[in-house]
Amino acid sequence: MRQSQLLMPTLREVPSEAEAASHQLMLRAGLIRQLAAGIYTYLPLGRRVLRKLEQIVREEMDRAGAQEILMPAMQPAELWQQSGRYGEYGPELIRLRDRHEREFALGPTHEEVITALVRDEVSSYRQLPVMLYQIQTKFRDEKRPRYGLLRGREFLMKDAYSFDEDWEGLHRSYKSMYEAYNRIFTRCGLYYRAVEADAGSIGGEGGTHEFMALADIGEDTIASCDSCDYAANLEKAEYGTELAAHYEQGQKQDELERLHTPAIRKIEQLVQALGVSADLLMKTLIYVADGSPIAVVVRGDHEVNEIKVKNMLSAASLELADQETTERITGAPVGFAGPVGLSIPILADFAVMALEAGIAGANEKDYHLGNVKPGVHLTNAQVGDYRNAAAGDKCPRCGQGRLTFHRGIEVGHVFKLGTKYSEALNARFLTAAGIEQPLIMGCYGIGVSRLLSAVLEQHSDSNGIVWPESIAPYRVHVVPVSSKDQVQMDLAMHIAARLSDAGIETLLDDRDERPGVKFKDSDLIGIPIRIVVGKHAAEGIVELKRRNETQVQAIGLEEAISIAS
Ligand code: ATP
Ligand code: MG
Ligand code: MG
Ligand code: MG
């Protein structure tokens, strides 16, 4: 490919809207451009990398025995009503109507569609197990799309679903997916950990794992043991028992009072200051203690709650409704879901009960911390301390090793679903004994576009991207120092042609640019091998440099071609 013809708009300046390193690099290297918040176009380089990732995922899915299909993004609302998720999924689900006023959703995930498909096409144990997957665009109206492709509203996901006769079968399917995931992330050059995630109501040992790319920008915190294989999302991590014991030994009363009094006072103030009903406050309650917000949320529409929370805060001029605070609210340390219609003092009690129930969390579904023991202090700052304090704690699994903490990006998720969807959508099969039973399901997701960002969070230096070879948009970058020099250009074109003929993806920088510009761009786009054709072109000598090394080799062109091939 000739660079003069490639749509690769590189940027010198770091775009101000991009916070995450990967987002900055993708904009600067001309991989993506934003169309709307969380919605991106992939330019040629970005598209090439995405295809490489897709291909790795595809090969490993096929190797694990999964079959590729492609399901529609547009899904009838009835399916979601049948599974019970139409209401439950909340505002992340993008809903629309067709010209006949029939309701549809844009798929954020495909459990409903696939269960309906398999219900209609699979009826006997003889057809089991079956594992299907797709690589497809998903839609989620994320509350805070950000960090470029890390949290998009339209993004590429690989989603796989397994259908088995029994739980043993599911364990096997799950294991083969788990192993495929390890191969995928390893092949992509990702540093990651598979961690135990919150099993929720599904339960069971190893009922769900998340694959976490290790990166500071990650939104999850994972605890891992330095001695055994224990690694868990903070939601699942069990620690803090010391504080719990402390609390139980007589601290409880103090703690209750400490919480109660300011909570009630604050609520009363808010009712007055905002002129809202106590009822509304009961739905969305902010309790400010020690300068940190604590949200107590009543079961229901979490998104609506957050909006109200923000409005209430700004209305009250508490100067808390800035982004940082909104973040803190979303990750607020106490969440409690309970019934509506209670008195304010009882609501304040909820904060305490939340502690006792071991739920410290947020006013957003799935953001709660589980298994938090009573006695954990409640403010954000304190939760922060608590997390730090827990580093170095004994491992809850082996009791020998110490826990360390990392930030992680969830790039993959495997989940034993059981019969949740097959029951709801009546997907049954006949066993060998002729008995009708619901299919036992598993689901397995990888955020393919998120994976691209995650790799970039880990593979760059101050000059730009350093692609792992497996997913680089091109393998070789041939750079003639001066495209006006015919000898240099001829040799560069010769090398590029030889490589291309050998099936090596090669980019030739034939632009009429200053050498400095060419080298800067070359470093920025991070192609693994660079062959520079300069003043020794006439003698057939070129310079070869790998992007991840500093050393430059002056070698003959045949040797360069053979190294690059
Ligand atoms: P998160 O906790 O980051 O919101 P999730 O748990 O909601 O992710 P899943 O429903 O498990 O996501 O979806 C499977 C995979 O899809 C995730 O592991 C992640 O890699 C990817 N993914 C989810 N949401 C997004 C998004 N908004 N943008 C890009 N990738 C995403
Ligand atoms: Mg999510
Ligand atoms: Mg998640
Ligand atoms: Mg997940």
From TrEMBL:
Its EC number is 6.1.1.15. It is found in: Cytoplasm. Belongs to the class-II aminoacyl-tRNA synthetase family. ProS type 1 subfamily. It comes from Paenibacillus prosopidis. It comes from the Bacteria. It catalyses: tRNA(Pro) + L-proline + ATP = L-prolyl-tRNA(Pro) + AMP + diphosphate. Gene3D superfamilies: Anticodon-binding domain, Bira Bifunctional Protein, Domain 2. InterPro entries: aa-tRNA-synt_IIb, aa-tRNA-synth_II, aa-tRNA-synth_II/BPL/LPL, Anticodon-bd, Anticodon-bd_dom_sf, Pro-tRNA-ligase_IIa, Pro-tRNA-synth_IIa_bac-type, Pro-tRNA-Synthase_IIa_type1. Residues 38-468 form the Aminoacyl-transfer RNA synthetases class-II family profile domain. It is an enzyme of class 6 (ligase). Consists of three domains: the N-terminal catalytic domain, the editing domain and the C-terminal anticodon-binding domain. Keywords: Aminoacyl-tRNA synthetase, ATP-binding, Cytoplasm, Ligase, Nucleotide-binding, Protein biosynthesis. GO terms for biological process: prolyl-tRNA aminoacylation. The gene is proS. Catalyzes the attachment of proline to tRNA(Pro) in a two-step reaction: proline is first activated by ATP to form Pro-AMP and then transferred to the acceptor end of tRNA(Pro). As ProRS can inadvertently accommodate and process non-cognate amino acids such as alanine and cysteine, to avoid such errors it has two additional distinct editing activities against alanine. One activity is designated as 'pretransfer' editing and involves the tRNA(Pro)-independent hydrolysis of activated Ala-AMP. Homodimer. GO terms for cellular component: cytosol. It holds the Pfam family tRNA_edit. SUPFAM superfamilies: Class II aaRS ABD-related (SSF52954), Class II aaRS and biotin synthetases (SSF55681), YbaK/ProRS associated domain (SSF55826). The lineage of its organism: Bacteria, Bacillati, Bacillota, Bacilli, Bacillales. This is Proline--tRNA ligase. HAMAP family: Pro_tRNA_synth_type1 (MF_01569). One of its GO terms (molecular function) is ATP binding.
